[in-house]
Each structure stands twice: as C-alpha cells, then as structure tokens.
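Example record used in the benchmark description.
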Amino acid sequence: LAAQVSHADSLPERPRTVLKQQLVPDSAVTVVVRDVASGESLVELNASMPRQPASTMKLVPTWAALELLGPAYAWKTRAWSDAPVVKGVLKGNLYLQGGGDPLLTIERWWRFVTDLRQTGLRIIEGDIVIDQTRFAALNERPEDFDGKSWRTYNVLPDALLVNWQSADFVVRPADDDSGVEVAIQPFPAGLVVDNRVVLTAGRCAGRNRRITITNPDDAPERVVVTGRLSASCGPQTFHRAIMQPAEYAYGTFVTLWRQQGGEFSGGMLRAPTPPTARLLLTQESQSLEEIVRVTNKYSSNVMARTLLLTVAAETSGTPATASAGEASIREMFASRGLEFPELVIGNGSGLSREARISGDSMARLLISAWKSRYAPEFLASLALGGLDGTLRRRFEKTDDPSRIRMKTGTLQNVSTIAGYVTGQSGRHYAVAVYINHPGVQNGVGELIQGAVIEWVLEQ
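Model output (structure tokens):
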C-alpha cells in the first residue's frame, strides 16, 4: 500500500493557499479532478494513496447494487402460518419473515399489519416467530464503533429491521405539575420505561433541561430516562435506537395488531420459516432506485450496509455476509476493467477505520458510473449543492450550486467528498477530495474541499 506522494505544487493556486493556511501537509490530502468524457486529468495529488473514505464509501455499494440488481429491484417482507386460518383464527404460529427491506418505516409496518388484518386473520393462538435468516448474524454490537449504541447511525443491519429500530421520546412537565412525563412513539409491546426525571424550578437552561436516555447492557428491553427538567420547559424531543431488532419488530407488530382489533396472547420466538408454511401476505419495499437515493443523499449507514448484504444474498445466497457482498462487487468491477487492489469495502457504509480507497479508484468508479446504463438513477442519488441532503447548507453562495452533485464523508480526523461538478464550460468532472489528518472534521476539511470545487466550477 506504499504509494508515491505527489506534492501540493500540482494543485491550483487557490486550494494550495488554503492548504498552507490551514497547516495541513500535502501528504495528508488526495485531490483528483478528471473530465468524465475524455478521462483527461486536470489535478492529481496523491491519487494512488489509499485513504479512509468515510461515507463516500457508500458510492461503492449503491452503484454496484444498481448495476447488479437493477433500479426496480424490491425487497419482500412476508407473513406465513404453520396452520390454516379458520374463521379468522390461526391455531398455530405466525412467521414474520424479513427480506432485508432497508426502509421499513413504522408507517409501512402499519400498512403491513393492516393488510394482514384484511386477509381475515383476527386471532393468533400460537406465537409470533421472527425469521431473520436472510442475513448472517453479525459478530459486533452497535456500540463497537464509538460507544454510542443509542445513536441511529450505529444501528446494525438486520433482515427484519423495522423503523431503524428507533423511537421518538418526548419528555415534558406533566400538566398538573406532578412530575415529568415520558411519551414514546412508537411504543413496542414489551418495552419497559424507567422514568427517573426530576421536575425542578427555575430557568429552562443548563442542568434544568439535561436529559439522558440509556439502555442497560443486561436488559435491552428496558429504557432508563434520567435527568432534570424545569417546569418552565416545553417538550424536549429525542430520537433513540432501542431494544434489539427482533424484539423491536415483534413489539411494534403486537402494538399495531392490537390497535387494529387483532388478538394475541402468545410470545416471541426466533426461527426460520418452515418450508411447509402457508403464505399469508407479501409486502414489497420501495424500489432500489429510491433506496439508493435516500442512502446517498442522507448518508444512511444501515441502508448502505443492507445494500451490501442484499448484493451478497442475490449473488451468493443466504445467509448473506458482508465479505460475500464485497467479493461480488469486486467481481462486477473487474468485469468492467476496474481493478482496485487497495480497496477495502468493509461494511459498505464508511463508518469504519478499516475501509480504504484511493482517489484514483474513486475517480475511475465515478467515470464508469457516469457512462453506465443506470447513470440517471445514480446521479439523482447524490446531494445537490446548497439544495438537499448532506450538502443542503454547503455552497449556498455559489452561483448555481446545483452544478455540484456529491457525496460527503466525515469521521474523526477524516473529511472527504466525491462526485461530479459541472464547470463553467459545461464540461463535467469527476472530483474526489480526501483529507486524513487530525482535526480536519471540524471545518478545515470543508474549506479545502470548497477551494477545490470552486476552482472546478470555473473551468
């Protein structure tokens, strides 16, 4: 992986000046700018150096999924029974089989429950069995990356991942001043809430509005809410990942089932759906085209990881693993003449310290994607400068920022951006700017990227 270092003298004057002003060594920066039509290179700085790409890695599984599965591909979530339904009664188990839908929101889960009720099923006398077998079990925990298991960016992929395993907590003073209320939406059956928030007097500031929501390691179905809240405070809202995927899917299903008049008194099991089971319902996800758009524009880690596993499931079989997905993507790249020996896809999201790619490889990928049959779908997934996604608040003062279509990436000591910029001449350029240096995530990286992109816009 030792690559020759080229120097900042190859940079245009403006980004070279910013690099010096910010005291970032040229050895920590990769800049590649190439014409997508001709492949002509305008700027090459450390192009072959492997870098941590952060979330720009998502460009790899999103484009690969479009190429391998097609933009109309859809995931299927199914309900099965191991006994016949007679007069609305199932004298057996109900199997909820996850197909890996990356965007199974609570609204779509409600639709799934509603459609199941519309089949005539009313009473489930057996258990509810969660089938997660499409994806292999992961040997990791949500807190492994940075210790923040409750943050939704750390949610792990699962074959039956409902609503990203998350809920909104609204903490507010009770109307009768008797204490503090905690409301949760959605509220899965089986969730235990331990409300220890103390109602205080005084200004709604500082320690008088400090709330902490935690999940004990030994009791994932339990949430502890602690802290202080002034009676003068309004509602405080928090978004948190809770429980485990199977328990969350089961709990929200039971809650919605009962809300719709369904009856159930059993428990939860985990098991594969038996081959003799009867199919009751199939719900299709949104199309892959839409999933890719959400993944890239809003930089969803769990959705990118799910795409990698889905590629593995469709090309190598189940239970799917990330390593099988990476092998399939490498094979697809090789068939297009894209050999990236330094590439480490890892989990596919970029939320990793092991992921690696060079600016040269990313630029070649971008040029190949530009010329591919699904280029419109891929380009539409990238954030538009100053308009949406992770670029909504960047390049706002640029003349026509919509000429910037890019994916951003940020980790501690990592700031990256990659995508397409249309120059003043109307020519289109593939651009990759990777900075791996202490502190660049705090705005320094964006200054360097901005200087490069502003220069490209003038071409």
